[in-house]
Amino acid sequence: MLLTRIDHVAIAVHDLDAAIDYHRRAFGAEVCHREIVDRDGVEEALLEVGGSFIQLTTPTRPDSPVATFLDKRGEGLHHIGYRVDDCASALKAVVAAGGRAIDEQPRPGSRGTIIAFVHPTGSYGTLIELVEEPV
After folding, report:
1. What is the DSSP string of the chain?
2. Which domains does the chain have, with CATH numbers?
3. CB count, 10 Å around CB of 15?
4. Which one, of 69, 75, 73, lies nearest residue 15 by Cα?
5. Over the stretch 35-45, which tens digit does the pLDDT of each residue have?
6. Which of 23, 82, 13, 12 is nearest to 48 (CA)?
7. 45 strand-pairing partners
8. pLDDT per residue as tens digits for the range 1-50
9. Contact present, 19 and 56 (Cβ < 8 Å)
10. Distance between CA 129 and CA 41 in Å, rounded?
């Protein structure tokens, strides 16, 4: 089994602070990590839930994939992050099984992770992020 757990569920939002406030008021959730990921043109806030995260993400520039998503679909579920021990091996296995890689090679992600995205085509309509924790 390549997957070790659900790393995060990502929700695209227009207003990060408002989304954080809602999760705080509704669920008592607190931000455990907040970061701007320039490469992807997003700012994210992570809320820990039972060893996994809810990732609230908002665009920092109009050409980011999250901005495009929000323009086309509005706020809501953006992708799911699967934790793996070895991102490169997991990406090869996904492609061998018929998945379509967005990232041809794993790359740096937030929190010092190594990540790779898999296109929803071939993944039953779900954008998947493979996430390897730093050693």
Report:
1. --EEEEEEEEEE-S-HHHHHHHHHHHH---EEEEEEEGGGTEEEEEEEETTEEEEEEEESSTTSHHHHHHHHH-SEEEEEEEEES-HHHHHHHHHHTT--BSSSS-EE-GGG-EEEEE-STTTTT--EEEEE---
2. 3-132 (3.10.180.10)
3. 12
4. 75
5. 999 999 999 99
6. 23
7. 34, 56
8. 889 999 999 999 999 999 999 999 999 999 999 999 999 999 999 999 99
9. yes
10. 16
What is the pairing mode between strands 42-49 and 107-108?
A: unpaired
Q: Which two three-digit tokens encode residue 50?
A: 């039972």
Beta carbons within 8 Å of 28's beta carbon, 6+ residues apart: none
